[in-house]
């Protein structure tokens, strides 16, 4: 699930990506072109919804800094219409048709907090301990009582699945057929949306990124209220770096939500 720390990390990377996009505008870039920028990111400004109970911690409310975060950005065009913003781990897609340039991206993470691996030998979505009728061998007899079904051997190894068989694998997929995942009707959805505007003026760039993170819940077991959407704004300025030597680290995987 996307927590606040993960969302902020993704947001910072996304902001950098955004700046790349605008940079490409000057000079009418075409497929195969790229531009390298060095930008300085201002401190991220978070709205009250980014904090528990919509109240920013007292310590953070009085914090301040004049430091900026430096980042190298690469803007490149795979086609004449598609601009890619690369920050070294995360890439955003956009276009360079408008001024200021606009880029956006979205990540969504879905979790089923009450899912569990249980014994569900007949794979009907009901745990055997709660199932009124269990029939793994599909013979029309209730497997839960020996008196009703004297033999249950779904994998054909001549060992009864219910008592003596240590591993039942009729479909040869390497998993014990008696176990399955039961998923409740409740699910949580964490979403991160990033929108960026960037302006290029000669060899300089400037822009702003807005990122919104939100968690919502669907299902009967959901709590009555979750945190409000978190809106964060971060501004940046930078310059084009000509004749830069790039060192690309292919060992760093792209972050995932």
Put the structure in a nutshell.
The protein is mostly beta strands and 257 residues long.
What does this structure look like?
With 257 residues, this protein is mostly beta strands. The chain has 2 domains: 30-111 and 188-241, Porin; 118-183, no CATH class. Helices cover 9% and strands 34% of the residues. The protein is built from 2 helices and 11 strands, in the order αββαβββββββββ. The strands form 2 sheets. Strands 1, 2, 3, 4, 5, 6, 9, 10 and 11 form a 9-stranded antiparallel sheet that branches. A two-stranded antiparallel sheet has the order 7-8. Strand 9 and strand 10 (204-218) form a beta hairpin. It is elongated, with a radius of gyration of 27 Å. The protein starts with a helix and ends in a 17-residue tail after the last strand. Mean pLDDT is 75; it is low at 1-27 and 251-257.
Summarize this structure as a short list of keywords or feature phrases.
mainly beta, Porin, nine-stranded antiparallel sheet, two-stranded antiparallel ribbon, 2 helices, 9% helix, disordered N terminus, Secreted protein, signal
